[in-house]
Amino acid sequence: MTAVVARDLRRSFRTTQGRLRRTRSEVEAVRGVSFEIAPGETFGLLGPNGAGKTTTIKMLITLLLPTSGSASVLGMDVVADVRAVRRRIGYVFGGDRGLYDRLSGLDNLRYFAELYGVEPREQQRRIGALLELVGMTGREHERVEGYSRGMRQRLHIARGLLHDPDVVFLDEPSIGIDPVGARELRATIASLKEQGTTVLLTTHYMFEADELCDRIAVIRSGEIVAEGTPEQLKRGVASGRVLEVETYGVPAGVVETLGDLGPVHSVAVEERGQLQVLVLQCDADSEVTQDVLSRLGDVRVGRVSAREPTLEDAYVQLVTQ
Ligand SMILES: Nc1ncnc2c1ncn2[C@@H]1O[C@H](COP(=O)(O)OP(=O)(O)OP(=O)(O)O)[C@@H](O)[C@H]1O
């Protein structure tokens, strides 16, 4: 049985603006989203801020009713079978809220285990296994207020898994976590997969999605614009090759003329300190470097390098084109 099915999900919000003259408007946050997640799969939902990822997740975890369309988790409808769905899913939202700082990690888990109705006899074994899974064994007696953000987030994940859900929704779990913490968190997410849990993950970190996800859907303005394995998405980048040129003080007009070169599909400028790095998506077999350099004329140029497209290249192209 498919773990998660979304069929033409839509959700709009009515908003009012202005204090004196109140104007009503409707935001279509999710506009016909469909996808399926197989059991045991780690599925990434990627998209810019406001693309509709959280709204989609909230519909799947029964916290928000769809305006239209349907969705099911493990064959159970998210509108008709709310209680049954909730019993089988876990969810973790990024950020710091939701733990008791004054309590130890262990007491937090005990408290939530009680709240989620985990059998008292089961609690100790379950909590022990979860501490192991999230790599926190040995730190469980310390108060949460002393935990790093990464540890808190792993404790959040342990909390979300207390009732042994089959499907877990992780909405930006690595937000605000330093690289070491983020690496540990990735290991935790990878071990969820190893134990057969189905995971839906949203993240703004492309290497994280590349490392963890079996398949990815890219969502933009409430619609899915691409779906596939990370490799398929990378291959789908129109170009096939990426040329990076470090420049100092490149005028916008010059950047535009680079886009006119035949083999160049797109040009983006990344500011890195003093540098402006031109990232050009080019045809795989093109010899465009000389043409690019001559168009740059007097502009001071640093390192020039070519590389294979990354998931981030594919993503940027998908959400900006
Ligand atoms: N309760 C609400 N009332 C009104 N508008 C909302 C509400 N919730 C979300 N929206 C709007 O719906 C759109 C999608 O929001 P959503 O939070 O799903 O995006 P997201 O992809 O999760 O973004 P982010 O990456 O910033 O978390 C946004 O335009 C947002 O302002």
TrEMBL record:
This is ATP-binding cassette domain-containing protein. SMART domains: AAA. It is found in: Cell membrane. It comes from Nocardioides flavescens. It comes from the Bacteria. It is a peripheral membrane protein. GO terms for cellular component: plasma membrane. The keyword Transport applies. Its main location: membrane. Gene3D superfamilies: P-loop containing nucleotide triphosphate hydrolases. GO terms for biological process: response to antibiotic. Residues 4-246 form the ABC transporter domain.
